[in-house]
Amino acid sequence: MKNIKYLLTLLICAGLTSTGFAQEEEKEESPFSLSGSIDTYFRANLNSGNVPGDGSTLAPGTSFANLPGFSLGMVNVIGTYQKDKVGVVADLVFGPRGQEAVFGSITNSNIINQLYVYYNVSDKVTLTLGNFNTFLGYEVISPAGNFNYSTSYMFSYGPFSHTGFKADFDLGGGFSLMTGLFNPTDATEFNPTGSYVGGLQLGYATDKSSIYLNSIISDGFTQFDITAGTNVSDAVYLGLNATTASDNFTGVAAYFQVATSDALTLGLRGEYFGDDGVGVIDLDESVFDLTFSANYSVGNLTLIPEIRVDTLSYDGFATDGANPGTMSSKSLSSFLLAAVFSF
């Protein structure tokens, strides 16, 4: 009798335990997720004043990290909701970096970095409609997605965002294809001209390496872009970006990063940028920038000390902050310390 009671007790406990496991397995993950980042920085020129006598800010002609002294980046909040095969993404930005990123938006929408819906038709096909960040270039708007805190010239003067429709295809064997139709570049809320831009991307990716051929084409304008990266080893990474935009600019940048520990990675970016008409520097002139950055991570916080040297092909940087124009130099050296917290 004792053995029977003991056996019954074991069976009941096993049943309760298995029921508990079943209940846990039946629990579904929440379809809603929230992520984002917060960043701030300090920046100073090393061979010139930060604010010349005319009241302008002396800095490289690139986006986001050009304010003098202790400065603010942005708050980035990304909400996603996915259920079954469909989902939405709402990506909001607040602060100076965010304002620069959405410069093509009207006042009421100038906090929207991305806003789109998507439909996973199958494991191989995804359709997207709305406003999304560009597929061109190596770098991105969010500082949490870049190794260097300051950005390249190519990224700064290429497109930031597109509003329209795109279809992504998994071709198998590591190959992918994206094709889309968009409003004019950075026209985020509506089409102000009635013309459209075609987009195309062909990609190949493995566990260690990737390469993407990108292009946007519209009436009288084309931009072709290539991005590539490879993990040479567990500690060493190499990246490449090259682009040409008709009557605007050409450029190429190389990225080198080496992890010295789990917490510290060192990196170098070298970029050549030629101005063919975009107007960031004098027409038919060029600039070479060399940026050394370190990423030191403490939990979700990344500290980024950075030294950058921009060298023009002509004397274009003022060196006398009190009397702009009286002295000039081909090069500008600057120091930056940024803090980026991701969640």
What would your notes on this structure say?
It contains 3 helices and 18 strands. It has 343 residues and is mainly β. It has one domain: Porin (Beta Barrel). The strands form 2 sheets. It has a 16-stranded antiparallel barrel with strand order 1-2-3-4-5-6-7-8-9-10-11-12-13-14-15-18. A two-stranded antiparallel sheet has the order 16-17. The longest helix has 25 residues, at 2-26. It is globular and about 60 Å long. Residues 1-24 have low confidence and may be disordered.
Question: Could you outline the blueprint of secondary structure elements for this entry?
Answer:
Blueprint: H1 2-26, E1 32-45, E2 69-83, E3 86-94, H2 96-101, E4 112-120, E5 125-133, H3 153-157, E6 161-172, E7 175-182, E8 197-205, E9 209-218, E10 221-231, E11 236-245, E12 249-259, E13 264-275, E14 286-298, E15 301-312, E16 317-318, E17 328-329, E18 331-342
Antiparallel strand pairs: 1-2, 1-18, 2-3, 3-4, 4-5, 5-6, 6-7, 7-8, 8-9, 9-10, 10-11, 11-12, 12-13, 13-14, 14-15, 15-18, 16-17
